[in-house]
Amino acid sequence: METFYQALKMIFVLVFSIGQLFSPKIAGGDFPPSAPVEPGDASKYVQISAADEGFDTWQPVEKYGGYRYGPSMILNADGSLDVWSAANGPGDITDMVTYKRYSADFKTRTKEVVAVKPTAECYDRMWTCDPGAVKFGGWYYIGYTTTVNPGGVDNVVCVARSKHPQGPFTEKWTGDGWGVDPAPILPYDGTPGCFGVGEPSFVVLGDTLYIYYSWCDERGAATRVATADATDENWPATIRRRGECIPPKDSGDSADVKYADAYGRFIAVFTERRFSDESRVAVWESFDGLTFRRSGYVAANTCKKLHNCGISGRADGHIGAGDPVYLSYAYAGADDAGSWGNWATRIHKVTLSLADAPMADTAGVTHSDVVVSPREISVIPEILTVKAERQSYTISERTQFWIMAYDTDGFCFPLLTGVQYDGYDASVVKIVGGQLCPVSPGTTRVRLQWHGFRGDFVVHVTE
User: Fold this and answer.
1) Do 318 and 280 belong together in one domain?
2) Positive/negative CA dihedral, 292, 296, 301, 304
3) Closest Cα partner for 270 from 320, 220, 323, 230?
4) What is the DSSP-derived secondary structure letter of residue 232?
5) What are the residues whose beta carbons fall under 8 Å from the beta carbon of 362, sequence distance 6 or more?
6) What is the mean pLDDT of residues 19-42?
7) Which H or E element spans position 244?
8) What is the pLDDT of residues 376-402, one digit of tens each?
9) How many Å separate Cα 185 from the centre of its chain?
10) 336 lies in a domain?
11) 139 and 190 inside one domain
12) CATH number at residue 411
């Protein structure tokens, strides 16, 4: 049966690619800039509650799995919601960041596309995951986790930017400007062999950019904060680390932080007891953005085995008075043993309120009885990205290579026509059909395009 579906997909690939040329423009609109707010009442504690069981925005593919986790969400002025997530990557890429926009009623969405992906033979060549999105100064920025360690440890935070929410986010901070070859904005200098640094979140308050990120060493997963000058286009060069703001958590993970204008405080959410039947979303708050206190948690109506959550806000990381607010997370299936990387994504509309005391920490947690419902393989593919079969090639003679299209179900198709190449050094290599032909020793990056989808790879020509 899988072979039948794959054959049908091959037939529809070209039909889909033509349709892409006429896909609608993305429009959502910004809110007016957030006005200065007064600090909130420290005698009150913010609470978040989910009124119902929510609904899934993504399910893994039956028999093949997959995921969209760690959502970062921006609410637009028309009520639509931009969502960036970590997705399982194609071929030799572990993770990448995808984007889609939901209408205000969630009845329609744009086609999912890759916003941030690894750059061949660069610092982020292994993966780009755990996105944190923000917009200021006319740019969308996506912070993400990556590493050069093949063991997946000693992670760092890098950042990419684009004028458009869907990207592509090809301009990355290089250490002294914006270009192709990324450098960490938050390096890890702790105990080697630990997870390291990652999972960023951003808030703009006045002229200051607050950067929240996980610091995971032998003590566990803490949250740290840094600040930068939001008026400087090269703001990564102005980053100042401010220290730990949330201590290591109860089997927790990354914090997503927003600023609630109506309550005059920063709000952080992160999952505790993740992947367990007692998992829940912790809620912490801060009045200065540098020190946080526990205020409550969200458990009722959420799913079991949840992890890596996010909360929505405006483009600058603010929750405006009266804005709809959404909480989203990934969650695993009932079978712990075989569910790693096989996660659905759920979203809830939530309400914020103030209480006279922090929520009591009770032993029991009430969850909605929801399990992952794998979806069947799509008949008409939704192309997610294109890339060379390998990130780089070392050649001394004519070498066959393939350009592959990957869809949202994780299947791939060789592209036999319509691929265009540019940006490479013709004195090093030339491309004839599906072959790389060496011209002279050297190294060049080759860029490719197929119906609006872009990729790149590196060619080394030896003697």
Assistant:
1) yes
2) positive
3) 220
4) -
5) none
6) 69
7) strand 240-246
8) 888 788 999 999 999 999 999 999 999
9) 17
10) yes
11) yes
12) 2.60.40.1080
For the stretch 118-151, pLDDT in tens is 999 999 999 999 999 999 999 999 999 999 998 8
Q: Which two tokens stand for residue 158?
A: 């890098």
**Is residue 367, in this structure, part of any structural domain at all?**
no
Matching residue, tokens 């400007």: 177
38-94 residue pLDDT tens: 778 999 999 999 989 999 999 998 888 899 999 999 999 999 999 999 999 888 888
**Dihedral in degrees, nearest 10, Cα atoms 14, 17, 21, 23:** 120
Q: Beta strands 318-319 and 256-260: pairing type?
A: parallel
Average pLDDT for the chain = 90
As a whole number of angstroms, the distance between CA 87 and CA 110 comes to 16
Alpha-carbon distance of 392 to 401, in angstroms, equals 10
Q: How many CB atoms lie within 10 A of CB 39?
A: 10
CA distance 235 to 217: 27
pLDDT at 337 over 50: no
- Average pLDDT of the segment spanning 281-299: 96
Q: Is 287 exposed, middle or buried (0-12, 13-18, 19+ CB in 10 A)?
A: middle
Sheet containing 412-414, strands listed edge to edge, beginning at the edge strand earlier in sequence: 383-388, 403-407, 412-414
Give the percent of the chain with pLDDT over 70: 91
Do 206 and 274 share a domain, yes or no?
yes
Domain that holds residue 256: 31-355
pTM of the complete model beyond 0.85: yes
Distance CA 382, CA 369 (A): 31
Strand order of the β-sheet with 435-438 is: 399-400, 435-438, 429-432
Is residue 352 over pLDDT 80? Answer: yes
* CATH assignment at residue 350: 2.115.10.20
CB of 312 within 8 A of CB of 325? Answer: yes
The CA distance from 274 to 272, in Å, is 5
Query: Tell me, what's the pLDDT at 6?
Result: 57
Block residue for tokens 């912490």? 284
Distance CA 259, CA 33 (A): 13
Q: Which residues pair with 168 in a beta bridge?
A: none
